[in-house]
Amino acid sequence: xxxxxxxxxxxxxxxxxxxxxxxxxxxxxxxxxxxxxxxxxxxxxxxxxxxxxxxxxxxxxxxxxxxxxxxxxxxxxxxxxxxxxxxxxxxxxxxxxxxxxxxxxxxxxxxxxxxxxxxxxxxxxxxxxxxxxxxxxxxxxxxxxxxxxxxxxxxxxxxxxxxxxxxxxxxxxxxxxxxxxxxxxxxxxxxxxxxxxxxxxxxxxxxxxxxxxxxxxxxxxxxxxxxxxxxxxxxxxxxxxxxxxxxxxxxxxxxxxxxxxxxxxxxxxxxxxxxxxxxxxxxxxxxxxxxxxxxxxxxxxxxxxxxxxxxxxxxxxxxxxxxxxxxxxxxxxxxxxxxxxxxxxxxxxxxxxxxxxxxxxxxxxxxxxxxxxxxxxxxxxxxxxxxxxxxxxx
Length: 394
Hints:
By secondary structure, this protein is of the alpha+beta class. The model has no long low-confidence stretch (mean pLDDT 93). The chain has helices spanning 99-123, 147-163, 174-178, 239-259, 266-297, 314-325, 354-364, 383-392, and strands spanning 5-6, 16-26, 33-37, 39-40, 54-57, 63-72, 75-80, 92-97, 127-132, 137-141, 168-170, 194-197, 201-204, 219-227, 230-237, 305-308, 332-338, 341-347, 366-371, 374-379. Helix 1 packs across helix 2, helix 4 crosses helix 5 and helix 5 (266-297) packs parallel to helix 6. The protein has a six-stranded antiparallel barrel with strand order 2-3-7-6-5-8. It has a five-stranded mixed beta sheet with strand order 16-17-18-20-19. A four-stranded antiparallel beta sheet has the order 9-10-15-14. It contains eight helices and 20 strands.
């Protein structure tokens, strides 16, 4: 079978084409099929860039939705949602890509080239992982980069965008390629396609890109984390960067309204609320300690002590159960009502409550465990039911 001509390589802005079906095969998993064409505007998944979406229209007007595209041995197979009998080899089809989807990928991919090139220039960082996700571009670098370094690189990358320099595609000869310094993640056989962004990057790439850097719009690093000796970046470009900025502004407005603070004072207001929360938490700890002491004093030596206190977190449950064991050698349990039932902590001085906890979980749809002397978890029953169960086990 002849190889598919890739119309997107010389012109990434081409959205439609007239083609001929080379082969068609059903896809039993999806109920649709796969169609190979002699030429296509659809980019296949590869190199970190998702495949194009769009439609194929048959001569009788039947429209097939293209959901995925993959390349095998130089032939591009288009996954479609249906495979009518009229879709046979030799049939003419009209292809049309989802342009909004394609242009988004072009912005992300070109922005990735710019930022990767800048990081390589500034820090000698290699791009060792790249994927255009549904929300952001994931980039992995080979070396660690500080927050200050990333800010500087982000600014330098956006300066390339503002300069609106052309994105150049070339196919150098072997001799020219041997003399060229360029980025590549793997050894490439045959003709190499080089994408050059003056001042930023020279890279071997088969993806689709904007005509100029200005069409990228903006490059924004949303997050970074240490990853395998380097950093993993979450990056958005173009329309995604605008949406991210609008979302951040909306969140800031919500925070400002809640804290009665102006946009440039939200951080100060958050620090103030955090300090107040910390002070209240310290006070709450002390009040709970007094309450736990009082509840423990109600238990006589050797008596069981089962206490229900609303609003306790797991740490509070544990503290109460331990305090009860200091007052009695009987069975001790701290309970608190939750949205789904009851949080519990069961303990006994010099005892083993694991079997009891297992029985409780089985009887009241619970989960939890621990050490012989103390077990903690939650169950789907009300505190009154838990207390009744524990007293029945005496």
